[in-house]
Amino acid sequence: MRFDRELLKGTTETFILATVAEMPCHGYQLVKQLKLKSEGIFQLGEGTLYPILYKLEAKGWIAGKWDGGTGQRRRRVYRITPLGRRQLAARSEQWSELVRGMALLLGASTNE
Amino acid sequence: MRFDRELLKGTTETFILATVAEMPCHGYQLVKQLKLKSEGIFQLGEGTLYPILYKLEAKGWIAGKWDGGTGQRRRRVYRITPLGRRQLAARSEQWSELVRGMALLLGASTNE
DNA sequence: GCGGTATACTTTGTTATACGAGGTATACGC
DNA sequence: GCGTATACCTCGTATAACAAAGTATACCGC
User: Mind listing the domains of chain B with CATH numbers?
Assistant: First the structure.
């Protein structure tokens, strides 16, 4: 789906964190994983994803490690850290609250 | 609740539109209405709300009318327009998709 | 050994948005 | 006349998602 540009803001870090938490991933793989798992709802470009990964790593929420076996394209595999896991929990909670708030406000008008 | 700054982006127009749709409102009243109806989840400041109202009006999604009876503080009452109603429907649909996408991605990791 | 395609990572510039902080002005109770 | 609640307005800041463009390696058919 094509979202209004601003609607995704603040959610991307969370669902990226969640996806990495489930399975260690490198960037390029993550682009496809996100699209697949979300049934096509989220389709981040590489220009969006990579900078986010760098930032998450800088914050210590994920840890990247170069993984270049011989005869293989070198790639950076990320896995979630304990700190990242705590952040994910906090973010998920915030997300639930946002959803609840929206349900309270949208409920009435959309069911008219 | 205190949200990460960016999380609300893109959602505010939608829930403001929804609230105005339910009942014509002026700005100051809307600040309280939003807080009340969302059970304290959304607490927009006036510095956030007013500029959004101007923008929604400029786009023709809401229509404002000065309402200053004698012996009363003048105030601008907004009501939703037919165009605004269509926009609200579209935004609500986007919101549902976002929620669905997040559920797909967060589901696995948060239930671990 | 040559060309095309998929993989994999990187950087830059643009646009817009929520928010805090500050400001103005009127009604009303006491 | 004084404080408080009401009501509106404006500016500056931070930052986030994205498109677009670029680099470079592996693999496959021929």
Answer: 12-106 (1.10.10.10)
Nearest CA to CA, how far is B70 from chain A (Å)?
32
User: Which nucleotides on chain C have any atom < 7 A from a protein Cβ?
Assistant: 7-12, 16-23, 26-28
Structure-token pair, residue A46:
């590489």
Give the pair of three-digit tokens for residue B5.
């700054």
User: Counting Cβ atoms within 10 Å, is residue A106 exposed (0-12), middle (13-18) or buried (19+)?
Assistant: buried
B5-51 pLDDT, tens digit each:
778 888 999 999 999 999 999 999 999 999 999 999 999 999 999 99
Tokens at B37, concatenated: 């109806």
For residue B106, the tally of other CB atoms under 10 A from its CB is 23
> For residue A107, which phi and psi values (nearest 5 degrees)?
-45, -55
